[in-house]
Please model this.
Amino acid sequence: MTHDYTRALALMLAAAFSLTCLPAGAETLVVTADRMFDARAGKVTGPVRVVVRDGLIEAVNPAELPAAARRVELGDHTLMPGLLDMHTHINGDWFTGDDWVTIPVHETAADWGIRGVVYAERTLLAGFTTVRDVGALPGFPDIALMRAIDRGFVPGPDIWPAGHFISTTGGHCDITGFAPGIQELGPKQGIADGVDEVIKAVRYQAKHGARLIKVCATGGVFSFSQNAPVGAQQYSLEELQAIVQEAGRLGLKVAAHAHGTEGINAAVRAGVASIDHGSILSDESVELMKERGTYLVPNLYLRQLTLPPDTPPATLAKSNYLKPRITESLQKAYRAGVNMALGTDAGVFEHGLNGREFAALVANGIPEAHALKMATVFAADLLGVDDRGVIEPDKRADLIAVPGNPLENISVMEDVRFVMKAGLVYKD
Model:
């Protein structure tokens, strides 16, 4: 019976995948559009013809086109590199209204993994061909999803998963609030205190397939502590340095959840690759980030959403305190020339709406071209890859198209009409 059920499930997934993706195989494609976004220059240029073969861009606007190539004519659209989202929780659905605190005691990683299949496809069809997944609940559902996508079992973006969040006991990423003895977590699940434990936590995530490390350096809006100020530092500089150094030995970068100034500065000094959220940046924070090349990954669309009416008063107060400071910090970082990459925090809100981050960035003072570069060439640099984020020969054929011109109307980024990932067409 189990064998029959497993076989039926595999057949259903295979059928769904075959309907979603239009395979190109070894076929040569020519994708044409009236416009192209040049991510390096931040400009939209004239008509474009892109030759795609074996998952790579073979040529851009060649003098002659391959005679036998299949043409994909997009017309009045802007062709763009596939987008990169540097802050997602692709298995998460904290937006459903369920009591997320109790999820770990009545759901398994398998539940999250199966939901992730649906959310990964939504993300891909929204134009995001690569994402960082910056922390999942115990059981590594993010890593399982990455492997399923990499093996072609299900459609979705390339995923850089973090495995479990790394957090102090009772910290922002620790599921607290239960009686002693219930849901007691340790370094394997990312809950670690002191240098020895955080090193063990990093090694365990890497052992099981993490491609980056996520540390909760400070508290946050949804932290359980009602006494500490929002964004209070939770890891010491020594612990943060140990995390970054051990991750570096394993070839991994570190993303830091950080809202408050002291925690931000400590994480930057420790050498993290990105400050995610970065709600309260001081002048010193900005100087440190610029000096060290640290990326800011803000989340603006999320801050526009209204919290549910049953939100605890302390949580609501923290959210209201941060909102104006987030905009101030974003503009301060932009004016100073701090590296910035796009991240949405999708999973806290509905997957597939990632494109709304662009309009939110522009509404908060970021120029359209810069916002688009944050999700292309800048994000690729943060990720540490040079094979995507631009439309150039020998790069991966990750391509999307939107109607009109996004530099004139940024909201078109919410209306992706064409998606190609590694030469395969998923939306046409």
In short: The CA atoms of residues 293 and 339 lie 7 Å apart.
